[in-house]
Every structure is written in structure tokens, then in C-alpha cells.
Amino acid sequence: MTQDLRVQKTQAAIHQAFWTLLATRPLTKIAVADLINEAQIGKATFYHHYVDKFDLARKLCELTQAPLIAVCAQRINSHHLQTLFLPLPEGILQDATHLRLLDTVQTPEFNGQTQMIQALQTAFQQALTTHDPKFPNPTTVTMELATLYQHVVIVDLIGNGQPTMTIQMQAIQQAVALLFPQP
Description:
Layout: H1 5-22, H2 32-39, H3 43-49, H4 53-77, H5 90-93, H6 96-104, H7 112-131, H8 138-157, H9 163-179
Helix pairs in contact: 1-2, 4-7, 7-8
């Protein structure tokens, strides 16, 4: 079932207001009133869709990060090291600005980096326990893998897209392959 066109337009206006304001100041400095003014909607309309600005941030994070997490999970599940370092599909790179903005949100109520790391950890843990159900300390190991992958790969892949990022990814891939040769 599709949403009413008015609902779609309202949510699009709220989302655009969020991105516009987050590009100019941190989330802690954005009030719901700012979002309402920027989106040109009423207070009741905002609260009909979202509990508060952190609820909006969480939902936009899920929406924006979902395609990236899906690609990463697919790469992790492939069990081929080189796929982890491939360039991201163009569709995901189109959301790079929003992904970078979410990465800057670090409040007690919502943390964009933590959201990404937790989703990646789930993907790593599922792949690891599928491959070896008796692997010791999978939660700790996969948290470290997810954190490393988020910081080294994801941040670079959604970065400014300079060729040096690709060279760095290739160097990391070569080093990991040398350190952990496949039998």
C-alpha cells in the first residue's frame, strides 16, 4: 500500500529541512521549531510523524544507511576479502553527503557512527557464526571488525572520492592478504 501523496510531501519537506539545517549546524543546535520553520509545516504535523528531533535523526539514519549496510553485508557474506574494498555503487555514493552528515551527529540520544558500527557488527557476526558457530568471543571480535571497517573503509569510501582513497584501500587489502594468506 502506498502512502498518501500529502504524507509523502510532508515527510520529504521535513527530511529536506533536517538535511539543510544539519549541514549548517550540529543537531544539538537545531530545535524542532527550526525544523518546522524550514519545512513550512505546523508543530502538530511534525509531532504526528516524529517523537522529537532524535527520532527523526534515527529514522533518517536507518533510511539513509540501509542501502550501504545491505551492500556491506553482502560483501561480508561473500567471504572474499577483496570485495570489502571495492568501490561503492554510484547510488550509495549519491547519499554520501547525508552519510557524512549523520556521521557528525554524536549526542547521548543519537550517535550516527554508533548506528553504523552496530549494523556492521551484526553483519560481521552473522557471517562469522555462520562460518564457524563455535568461534570464541564473536561479539568482541565482530565489534572490532565493524569499528575498523567503519573507520578505515566506509569513511574513506564516502569521503571526497579522491583517487588516493582507492590507493589506500588497495594497500590495506594487500597488507591484509600478506598478513593472512588464504590456504
